[in-house]
Amino acid sequence: MSRLDKSDWLDFALAQLAENGHGALKAQTLAAGLGVTRGSFYWHFEDLAAFKRDLVAHWMDRTTEELVRAVVRDGDAEAQLRGLMRRALRSGAALERAMRAWATVDAEVAQTVAAVDWRRIRFAEQLLAALGVSEAEIGPRSRMLYWAAIGRLMMMRSEGQELSDAEIEDLAALLSR
C-alpha cells in the first residue's frame, strides 16, 4: 500500500460518515479501516478537533465548491441553472443526511452546515439574478429550489423518483421567468 496523505484520510472518513454515521469517526476505527496504525492519523491531524475541522471543510469543498466550479463550466446562466438543478436534484443522499445528523449533536458541525446552506442558496441567487429574475423573487425562488433539493435528499427512499431532463428543463424555465 502506498503512503496515505491527508486527503486519503478525509475521503475515507467521508465514506465512513455516509455509511456508518459520525460515530465511526474515531482515529482507531478509521486507521483500522485503512489498514494503518493510529499513529498515521496523528501524523496528519494534530488531534480529533483538527480532524473534525478538516473533515467538515473537505465535505464543504467536495459537495459545494466542486459543484459550483462544475456548474460554472456549464456555459451561460441558463445552462448553469439547468446544470445546478440536475446535480442538486440527482445527487446522493447518504452523505448529506449523515452530515446533517452529525450537525444535530455538534454545534461546530452545525455552524458549517448552516454556512454551506447559505453558500448554496447564494449561488442559486446569483444564477437567478444573471437570468434577470426580479430582485423580489430571487430570494424566495432560490430558497425554494434549495429546500426542494435538501428535502429530496432527506427522503429515505428517493430511488426511482428522479426528475427527467425534460422536467428539470421545465422547472428551470419556471424559476428563471
Structural write-up:
The chain is an all-alpha fold. The protein has a single domain (52-176), classed as Orthogonal Bundle (Tetracycline Repressor, domain 2), CATH 1.10.357. Helices cover 75% and strands 0% of the residues. The chain has helices at residues 6-20, 27-34, 38-44, 48-72, 77-88, 94-103, 107-130, 135-154, 165-176. The chain is elongated and about 55 Å long.
What tags apply to this protein structure?
177 residues; mainly alpha; Tetracycline Repressor, domain 2; 75% helix
Structural class: mainly alpha
CATH topology: Tetracycline Repressor, domain 2
What value does the average pLDDT take? 91
Number of domains: 1
Task: Describe how the helices and strands are arranged.
Blueprint: H1 6-20, H2 27-34, H3 38-44, H4 48-72, H5 77-88, H6 94-103, H7 107-130, H8 135-154, H9 165-176
Helix pairs in contact: 1-4, 1-6, 2-3, 4-5, 4-7, 5-7, 5-9, 6-7, 7-8
Give a quick precis of the structure.
The chain has 177 residues and is mainly alpha-helical. The protein has helices at 6-20, 27-34, 38-44, 48-72, 77-88, 94-103, 107-130, 135-154, 165-176.
